[in-house]
Amino acid sequence: MLGCVIHGQGDLRVEELPVPVPGPGQALVAVRYGGVCGSDLHYWLHGGVGDFRLREPMVLGHEVVGTVVSYGSPTPSGPAAGTAVAVHPATPCQVCPECADGRRNVCRDTRYLGSAARFPHVQGGFAAQVVVPADQLRPLPVGLGLRRAALAEPLSVALHAVRRAGDLAGRHVLVTGAGPIGCLVVAAAKAAGAGRVTATDLLPTALEYARIAGADTLVRADDPYGAGWPSEVDVAIEASGVAAGLDTCLRLVRRGGVVVQLGMLPAGRSPFAGNLVVSREIELRGAFRFDTEFDGALELLAAEVAFDGLVSAVVPVREAEAAFRLAADRSSSCKVLLDFGD
Ligand code: ZN
């Protein structure tokens, strides 16, 4: 079977891999689609993401949907063979202080598909067949096909960021960065009842995807403040992963407002207007991955056809490097899926 392995910066290979065998409590899943995430691109382009560095070859991918093939023995409970499923990519430890505190998304000992956060790295889901814990399988709700369901993982990230922002009902929400995650934050904010969502990006193409996701106002990030920008917003969610985006959020959020940093900033330190946090009593909150939001994401995807418009390309796994190039070119793509079928 074919898998998509990152060997180091710029060294992405489609390789023949052995079909894994499920053990106790595990399921074997035939992967159909895998969404290319910004973090997959970071491993490819930079050899790491945020402060996590590649130290050994790793199968990429954590946005994975497919069908159940079989289970290990003794057979755990789970969807029947042949059932279409999405895979929750996180296996929190369940015993650390964060897990005990109900914040399993920041578990200090979690295993996350296709992540170099721990060593040995956790191998990912960009392979024709993958073994995962059976309790991480989620059958798709009625009406949701595998293609749209491939957005469940990044939409969960967006739903978590929105949850971290607090009550958005009737609020004006700014989203800086209209890549796939930013667009899904726009959709999640609207679903949470935001009164108005303003999305910013440097690229007109990205802003068009934000419009598909439901943004009310689109602003070119390189326009000077004043021209098309809101004078202030109630909540700002930073989804660009650059310090300039955080700076914009801090300058535009109202006094006492909330800023959520969701985008992974470059490794090391990032400059930001810290005194605004003090003098305006801004609440600056991080958002990392997600936990139970996965189930809500599947329900939201089943209910909303517009999400189809955010999948901009589906590319056979043999052309994975072309898919990565396309996903990295935000002037011509939003979410790119690898197709492992047939
Ligand atoms: Zn834990």
Using the CA coordinates, give the radius of gyration.
20 Å
Number of domains: 2
- Please, what is the CATH homologous superfamily of the largest domain? Medium-chain alcohol dehydrogenases, catalytic domain
Mean pLDDT: 96
Helix-residue proportion = 25-40%
Q: Let me know the number of strands.
A: 20
Total number of helical segments? 10
Q: Strand fraction band?
A: 25-35%
The main sheet comes to: 7 strands, mixed
Name the bound molecules.
Answer: zinc ion
Structural class: alpha/beta
Under CATH at level 1, the class of the largest domain stands as Alpha Beta
* Terminal Cα span: 11 Å
Low-confidence sequence ranges: none
H-E order: EEEHEEEEEEHEEEHHEHEHEEHEHEHEHE
The name CATH uses for the topology of the largest domain is Quinone Oxidoreductase, Chain A, domain 1
CATH-derived architecture of the largest domain:
Alpha-Beta Complex
> What gross morphology would you assign?
globular
Describe the 3D structure.
The protein is of the alpha/beta class. The chain folds into two domains: 2-139 and 304-339, Alpha-Beta Complex (Quinone Oxidoreductase, Chain A, domain 1), CATH 3.90.180.10; 158-286, NAD(P)-binding Rossmann-like Domain (Rossmann fold). It is built from ten helices and 20 strands. Strands 3, 7, 8, 11, 12, 19 and 20 form a seven-stranded mixed beta sheet that branches. Helix 4 crosses helix 9 (293-303). The protein starts with a strand and ends with a strand. The mean pLDDT is 96. Zinc ion (ZN) binds at residues 92-93, 96, 98-99, 107-109. Residues 92-93, 96, 98-99, 107-109 line the site of zinc ion.
